[in-house]
Write a structure and sequence with these properties.
The structure is a single chain. The chain is α+β, with helices and mostly antiparallel strands and 1690 residues long. Helix 43 packs across helix 50 (1464-1496) and helix 58 runs antiparallel to helix 59 (1668-1689).
Length: 1690
């Protein structure tokens, strides 16, 4: 047979290399060529791909190239939208109905600042289109599913085939039908004709036989192809399996109040055996291990109304807040050691606790009638005590619940749980007994180690009944005793078990707290939203005292004080003092009337009281106390505020002349000491008499003259005071810093801080040392006051204070301490970081809180503030001035600028030496004369960003500087001038920050580098705020910033890039963070700065990395650069930044490149090569300059995929995913939905086609893996064996293939099995490692996207310029695409789903992927230990799965293996998507083939190309295709044959055979549309063959041979369908009027009858498979007939 144009022969190794060189030469210089050249020999106009070109001056370009279009989507591509960035002030979400603010107004500046910090709006910078950047690419999010809605279901024959079992019956049924006349001998003409005549044809295609011009046919075909196409190719492509895309910056959480896990406890009822008096209860949580009470008390009252009535004289009307019976507890650190402790108290009465508790133990409710009289007596006694002693309480009983046992057991039960708790002798342990309704007891005693099992969020609500209480013991009331009891309760042999219990019934409900409970009151008694009705009994939020520090910034005003009297020792006090109570009062002066009504009430009483009494232990001179007194602190405290304790003896017996209470001692605690709040443990002496005047400013420790003290002035009263306050920092260093800053604000000297008096002259030293000392403060208060602290530091930078007439520059100190604080947070709070290492507390500060001082949204203009305390002003007052730029700039920056004053001021002679002098001179001479301003001269430095010194932009800058420096606090200017002789102005924070960073060194610079992201993000927000409030977001970008700021940014970027390059081997983790931070910073700058300037920064980075990469050939550095590139390119206006509407002009001096040489030898472009078009398709210098970022992306792709660049082998997947990600993002972007716009976007990626062509030899060979899905080698691979054993299946109902081939008269391998011609990939030929299937597939889908969306005319022009070998390579690429995107079939999806990973190496692959997923220090270590870094390509530095041969065919598994059991619907959906992808991909290939055909049809060397086109077409027919695609494919094939009939019948004869086989195969399809089109194609093929030479012998022969092999080898062949197609062909012949008079219709009829007879015979042979004699007989007859047919035809 004719020699086959197989792939292997077409592209031999040498040709491939040649072509690569050719293409590379054309593509603006291939990396490997340039590596070997000397730099000297390069022409000035060529820049190797490994280096960045000089970017276009973006702003200049926009000015010089005004847009051609007025409006519309294309116009929007040219410039960023005007509303791109907005600064939004969002009111912060307030949890409570009214905002928490101090009642007495903000008198104190610190309180005012705190309250402002907790109430001001969030200042958010919003990049409106940010979500359209690649970081939020819908392909990598769940939105993919939404975009796939409404896809049509593509019909595939592979899916239509029934299963083998059911299929056989149908076959038999069909056979019975075809044997309709039994007496006709099988195989006779008559029978055959009878069957055919009775068949039904498929519908005929209209106008098939009309003669129409080829152009018209092409146009019609194209219109048909282009209708109803799927717009978004990537919506059909499974997303790349990346973790989180590196370019995604998540919006940080809004700062809000901290809560732990929340638990709702409802108190339902409390019932004793006897009811004789009111009982009061409280609940609190204790942590035994930490020995800490971890919540405040919740007081509740479950007494009946008539019992409460006993106390009527003592109780005012009860406030509704004190009637709560349910409470929400918050537990930040739940553990096995948390107990809920319930304490009961009763009204004080005569007798100790034991006596008073006796009746409760003795009497039983059942004996009430028996003991009626005794009970009456007890009740009347109680009434008397309530009347007389109703205000005092005594301890009564307590019990505790082990919280985790409840939660764990409730979690294990099937329904709402009832737990009964008791101490019973029989069990022998303290246990919690469940109601008998629950079967299957499990011991509730299980304790688990660690806290991981201690979640309180998901357990089922439980109802507890507590039946036993322990009576309190007067000498064991302290917390220490309680912890011993609680620890003991967890032991099986509890001491408590031996005690006699008080029987009672307390019912509680415990459940996880709902998300937004109704009717809830905060610990400060504010109503929490939603609070529909104020009359409903509320739930109380109980304040937590966390067991360990909680690091969350304050966000609400709260100022509470808890006073816990602990013990008193009056053993050595003379006189009678036995029943002792302590009255606690909070005083704001010494007069008894100065007691403030700030003490919270307990239960069933008023909200607030002026005093509180501790409970009394009967006849005890040294009592312990367990009371907690909660006080609402006033916002501003003075020296006169103090807590006063008065000790009383209460006489329980009513005697003549005895007072109810006798004062027996006094002591107090002043609230402030040296201006700081006093808290902690105190052991106070007690005075026997009332304190003298002015006692409150002194401590009781001071021996006041003439006072009598208990026990010789020794400490006898222990008390603990705890503050929970968002006003008082309770940290000495923070207190000092805030105090000094406020002293500056108030300008009141001397300042008293601690025991020091600071005069104005040493304020500067103190201020600097207090800033430095912030490092010594505790982390917890630093975090709590983080927002205020950072705000104050920013303020000091922006408005340097004026102290004693001198401006003090605190920029450096503030910058240093900021860096230190940020690093401390990063180090100790490493759990709250995102993937970029950004601490969430800091990122939310920047995002929501940070703003420039005095950018008050309400003030009339950004720089004029009506008062110094507007909401945006950070409390900044007016005593701040400006400062000259620091003199310590590095000399290398060469920034010697001079400033001169404008000569309009006649009073000044000469040039002042510094801005300070200038200020003095101006103010001295003129007062505040606004007409004087600085002019910034540019004498000594050329201006790359501005123009000549006198030009308008320069003056603009000068004006801007003047505006920045002269903030007009007009109302206070004159006052300030007299005070300091200074003009108050302010700096710009971002400028100062950049400067401080650039000049920093040593540990400060290191600290800033460690957390570079923080300073970058601060800078960006400051820039945007400044532009926004100066209303300059609209102004031209070139004039927005002074040049010195641009210099600082340049220096900063340059040094940081240097750090990345020099330190990546030593400190990879830091460098990774630094690299991403820098990339995000430049990405942000693209939104606000001169974009050409930012491009030069990118170029500077590129250059530094390039130099090092090629010196070291280190893939890690290249990988970092890819991350950088990916982040910078994720900008939402990436397309606009690439100037997609610029048309490339030829370079001024064309370089003698290889491309011009090629163009002469180009197969068919006689005209001079169109340089413009070439530039669009090559990575030429003009392309890379004009489309700067796209140029970088494609250059990286080209360089990394270059086969000679072996060191970068492991980065293939990474670099491909950069491109894939960009394209899939453009694909789904609503801004580019318009096809004209998409064509412009696709223009940026035209060189991709050439790059992929170059990689062809390395691509994964998808033609090889076609049998991967378990197909046998049958035609079109639709033979899915359900029993999994191919051989057996073959034996069942197929003629042996070799036999069939022999019958067909051919000995070569079957022409029906696919030509495995894509041999480039065979292992032997491989010099370079090949790509993984996944990378290859990604690359090919990118290629198809470009081909789909690019402008067809542009493509056509370029194809014209390509040489024959290049075009052939493009066809080879399309051939590969057909295989790559072939539909796998529903059955394949099901099979993949049922397969689990049996092979260990697959598991190994998964493991490696997990360990080596991304580059990071940890993975680096794992790799090092495996020595993997040293191995060359085969074990590249990142296990990015390119190199592992055994991974090769896993591409689809990896997407499907996450969950092995997919639902039916999911499988259906997957098959639907895959079917649509296969159809769309093949249609794109078909579109491209049509363009190629149009291009080459006019040239003389078209034959070789057309052969290639035909081969791709045939290959696509051989694959699993949808009916939709096949009808377009057949239409194209018919057009091709009609345009170039000689191609098939004279040159590509082998392909003619192939085509006949494909058409026949489709004629036997079970889908009627496929049959209709295939029959039409087959008929026209005969017709055209006939028209060439009056007979169509070639087609007859090929069809006959094809039929025999088809019937013989296809497993699921169905003769009924083929019979219909034969009938259709007959029908065409009958209806063909044009050829009616020729022999053609008879020849067709002959052929069809022959075919039908062969068909019947072959089917008969299949039936007699098991009967050898019959089979041989039939074969003989069959061969004879076949020979006759062939003789006739020749």
């Amino acid at each position: 047979m004719a020699e086959r144009r197989a792939f292997a022969q077409k592209i031999s190794r040498t040709v491939a290399a040649e072509v690569r060189k050719q293409i590379a030469g054309q593509y603006g210089g291939s990396p490997q060529l340039f590596k070997n050249l000397n730099a000297g020999t390069l022409t000035s106009n060529t820049v190797p791909l490994t280096e960045a070109v000089e970017p276009v001056d973006f702003e200049e370009y926009l000015i010089t190239h005004p847009p051609i279009v007025e409006s519309g989507p294309l116009r929007d591509l040219i410039e960023f939208p005007p509303d791109d960035i907005e600064v939004i002030y969002t009111p912060r979400e307030c949890r409570t109905v009214v905002q928490a603010i101090p009642e007495e107004g903000d008198t104190d500046p610190h309180v005012r600042d705190c309250v402002r910090s907790y109430t001001e709006d969030w200042a958010i910078v919003n990049r409106k289109y940010h979500k359209l950047g690649t970081g939020f690419n819908p392909n990598s999010l769940d939105k993919q599913k939404e975009r796939q809605k409404g896809l049509p279901k593509q019909v595939f024959e592979a899916d239509e085939l029934p299963d083998s079992s059911g299929y056989q019956d149908d076959q038999d049924d069909l056979k019975r039908r075809s044997m309709s006349i039994d007496d006709t001998p099988r195989g006779s003409w008559a029978c055959s004709i009878f069957d055919l005549k009775n068949s039904l044809p498929d519908s005929l295609l209209p106008h098939l036989l009309d003669r129409a011009p080829n152009e018209e046919i092409d146009r019609h075909n194209e219109d048909q192809r282009k209708t109803n196409r799927h717009r978004e190719l990537f919506a059909l492509h499974p997303a790349l399996d990346e973790e989180d895309p590196i370019e995604r910056h998540c919006v940080p959480d809004v700062p809000k109040e901290h809560f732990g896990q929340r638990l709702l406890v409802k108190c339902l009822s409390l019932k004793f055996e006897i009811e004789i008096e009111p009982i009061f209860a409280s609940l609190a949580l204790y942590d035994v291990k930490e020995k800490k009470k971890i919540s405040e008390n919740f007081f509740f009252d479950l007494n009946s109304e008539q019992t409460k009535a006993m106390l009527r004289p003592h109780i005012q009307t009860a406030a509704i807040s004190t009637l709560a019976r349910s409470a929400i507890f918050s537990i930040t650190y739940p553990s096995q050691d948390v107990f809920l402790v319930i304490k009961l108290e009763k009204v004080l009465q005569q007798g100790d606790i034991g006596e008073c508790a006796e009746p409760y133990m003795v009497f039983k409710e059942s004996d009430a009638n028996k003991n009626k009289e005794k009970l009456e007596k007890l009740r009347s006694q109680s009434e008397q005590f309530c009347q007389r002693l109703g205000r005092y309480r005594m301890p009564f009983a307590w019990t505790a619940i082990h919280l985790m046992n409840i939660v764990n057991s409730a979690g294990s039960l099937e329904r709402d749980t009832e737990l009964e708790m008791s101490l019973s002798e029989r069990k022998g342990s303290w246990s919690e007994r469940r109601n008998s309704s629950i079967m299957g007891r499990r011991s509730l005693e299980r304790t688990t180690s660690g806290d991981e099992s201690c979640s309180l969020t998901g357990f089922r609500p439980a109802t507890l009944t507590i039946t036993n209480f322990f009576k309190q013991e007067g000498d064991r009331l302290s917390d220490e005793d309680l912890y011993k009891f609680l620890a003991d309760m967890r032991r099986p042999s509890s001491v408590l078990r031996r005690l006699r219990p008080i029987t009672a019934q307390l019912k509680l409900d415990i459940s996880p707290a709902p998300e937004n409970p109704h009717y809830c009151l905060t610990p400060d008694l504010l109503q929490v939203k939603p609070y529909p009705d104020s009359r409903v009994r509320p739930t109380r939020d109980i304040l937590e005292f966390p067991a360990r520090d909680v690091y969350v910034p304050n966000t609400t005003y709260r100022n509470l004080l808890y006073v816990n009297p602990q013990s008193l020792n009056f053993a050595n006090r003379q006189g009678s003092a036995r029943n002792i109570t302590v009255k606690v009062q909070f005083m704001n002066g010494e007069d008894p009337n100065n007691a403030m009504q700030v003490i919270f009430g307990k239960s069933s009483c008023a909200d607030f009281y002026k005093e509180a009494y501790t409970s009394v232990v009967y006849h005890n001179r040294s009592p312990d106390f367990h009371d907690e007194i909660k006080i609402k602190l006033p916002a501003s405290l003075s020296d006169h505020h103090h807590i006063l304790f008065t000790f009383y003896h209460v006489s329980c017996q009513q005697k003549q002349n005895t007072l109810l209470e006798t004062p027996v001692g006094y002591t107090w605690i002043p609230m402030l000491q040296n201006g700081r709040l006093r808290t902690g443990h105190f052991c106070l002496p007690v005075s026997l008499e009332k304190p003298p005047q002015s006692y409150s400013v002194l401590s009781p420790d001071v021996p006041l003259p003439g006072m009598k003290w208990v026990d010789n002035h020794r400490g006898v009263f222990n008390v603990e005071v705890v503050a929970v306050s968002t006003i008082h920092t309770q940290d000495q260093y923070l207190d000092k810093f805030f105090a000094l800053v406020h002293a500056l604000d108030e300008h009141m000297f001397p300042v008293r801080i601690g025991d020091m008096r600071i005069m104005e002259n040493n304020l500067e030293t103190e201020l600097k040392s207090s800033i430095a000392a912030l490092n010594s403060s505790q982390l917890e208060p630093v975090v709590r006051f983080l927002h205020l602290l950072l705000d104050k530091l920013v303020l000091l930078v922006v408005r340097p204070p004026v102290i004693a007439g001198q401006i003090v520059n605190l920029g450096q100190s503030s910058f240093e301490v900021m860096a230190a604080i940020v690093n401390r947070l990063h180090k100790y709070l490493d759990t709250s970081q995102d993937m970029h290492g950004r601490n969430s507390l800091l990122s939310s500060y920047i995002h929501y809180v940070f703003r420039l001082p005095s950018t008050d949204p309400n003030s009339p203009s950004p720089d004029v503030k009506s008062t110094s305390t507007g909401p945006g002003g950070l409390g900044g007052s007016v005593h701040y001035a400006t400062m000259a730029r620091s003199a310590v700039r590095p000399a290398s920056l060469n920034l010697n600028r001079s400033r001169s004053l404008s000569n309009s001021n006649p009073d000044i002679s000469g040039t002042p030496t510094s801005p300070d002098d200038e200020v003095r001179a101006i103010i001295g001479s003129k007062g505040l004369d606004r007409s004087n301003s600085w002019v910034h001269t540019m004498g000594c430095k050329s201006a790359p960003w501005g123009s000549s010194p006198g030009s308008a932009p320069e003056t603009m800058q000068a004006m801007e500087r003047c505006g920045n420096r002269m903030s007009s606090h007009t109302e206070s200017a004159s006052f300030l001038q007299t005070l300091t002789g200074r003009l108050p102005t302010k700096k710009l924070f971002h400028e100062e920050l950049a400067l401080q960073w650039v000049v920093s060194s040593g540990s400060v610079r290191e600290g800033a580098l460690q957390q570079a992201w923080f300073f970058f993000e601060l800078m960006v927000k400051s820039i945007i705020h400044h532009l926004y409030f100066a209303e300059r977001l609209e102004s031209p970008r070139k004039n927005r910033f002074p040049e010195r700021f641009m210099d600082d940014i340049t220096a900063l970027v340059s040094t940081i890039a240097g750090d990345i390059v020099s330190r990546f081997q030593k400190d990879l983790e830091l460098v990774e963070r630094l690299n991403t931070s820098l990339a995000f910073f430049l990405n942000d700058l693209l939104s606000v700065m001169d974009r050409g300037f930012v491009f030069t920064l990118i170029k500077a980075y590129w250059k530094q990395v390039s130099t090092k990469v090629y010196a070291l050939q280190n893939p890690t550095l290249e990988s970092l650069r890819l991350d950088f590139l990916r982040i910078v390119c994720s900008h939402e206006h990436y397309v606009t930044l690439n100037l997609p509407c610029s048309l490339l002009t030829p370079p001024a001096s064309p370089s003698p490149s290889v491309s011009s040489a090629t163009s002469q030898s180009s197969g068919f472009s006689t005209h001079v090569q169109d340089q413009k078009i070439a530039n669009m398709f090559e990575l030429s210098v003009p392309f890379r300059e004009q489309h700067f970022m796209a140029g970088l992306v494609l250059s990286e792709l080209s360089v990394i995929l270059d086969p000679d660049n072996e060191g970068m082998f492991g980065l293939h997947k990474k670099v491909v995913s950069v491109v894939h990600n960009l394209l899939s993002s453009h694909d789904s972007d609503p801004r580019y939905a318009d096809s004209e716009v998409k064509a412009r976007v696709a223009m940026l990626y035209l060189p991709l086609i050439g790059i992929v062509m170059e990689t062809l030899p390395q691509l994964h060979d998808f033609t090889e893996s076609l049998n991967q899905w378990g197909r046998s080698g049958g035609v079109q691979g639709t033979t899915v064996c359900s029993n999994g054993d191919d051989a057996e299946a073959e034996g069942n109902n197929m003629i042996n293939q070799t036999v069939a081939m022999a019958i067909a008269g051919t000995t070569t391998t079957s022409p029906m099995s696919r030509p495995s011609s894509f041999l480039l990939n065979s292992q032997a030929n491989r010099q370079h490692g090949s790509f993984s299937a996944e990378s290859s597939r990604s690359l090919l889908i990118c290629l198809l996207w470009v081909l789909k969306n690019a402008d067809e005319l542009v493509l056509q022009k370029w194809f014209t310029d390509l040489s024959v070998s290049q075009l052939n390579r493009l066809l080879d690429l399309l051939y590969l695409c057909v295989s790559c995107f072939e539909y796998k079939g529903k059955k394949a999806f099901e099979r993949m789903n049922s397969l689990t990973f049996k092979k260990s190496k697959d598991m190994k692959a998964k493991l490696e992927e997990a360990i080596l997923g991304s580059i990071g220090a940890r993975q680096e270590m794992v790799r090092r230990s495996r020595g993997q870094l040293e191995r060359s390509p085969s074990g590249s530095a990142f296990g990015s799965q390119e190199n592992l041969r055994w991974r090769k065919d896993m591409t689809h598994w990896r997407q499907n293996s996450e969950r092995l059991d997919k639902t039916r619907a999911e499988l259906e959906h997957e098959a639907l998507i895959d079917g649509n992808l296969a159809t769309e991909a093949n249609l794109i290939i078909l579109d491209t083939l049509e363009i190629i055909v149009q291009t080459v049809s006019v040239t003389e060397s078209k034959e070789s190309i057309l052969g290639g086109v035909l081969k791709v077409l045939l290959h696509s027919m051989a694959c699993n295709q949808s009916a939709l695609y096949l009808q377009h494919c057949f239409a194209t094939q018919r057009a091709l044959v009609s345009k170039f009939p000689e191609l098939l019948f004279e040159e590509e004869t082998e392909q003619c055979a192939d085509l006949c086989l494909r058409l026949l195969r489709s004629c036997s399809s079970s889908i009627s549309t496929i049959r209709a089109h295939a029959s039409a194609s087959l008929y026209l093929l005969m017709r055209q063959n006939f028209e060439i030479g009056n007979n169509f012998a070639r087609v007859k022969m090929q069809v006959t041979m094809s039929l025999s092999s088809l019937v013989g080898t296809s497993q699921n062949f169905n003769e009924e369908f083929l019979r219909r197609s034969l009938k259709t062909i007959l029908t065409y012949a009958e209806e063909d009027l044009e050829l009616r008079e020729t022999t053609f219709p008879d020849q067709v009829q002959d052929l069809v009858f022959n075919l039908h007879m062969i068909l019947s015979d072959t089917v008969k042979m299949k039936e007699h498979q098991e009967d050898p004699e019959m089979l041989i007989d039939l074969m003989y007859r069959y061969c004879t007939k076949l020979m006759n047919v062939q003789e006739n035809q020749f």
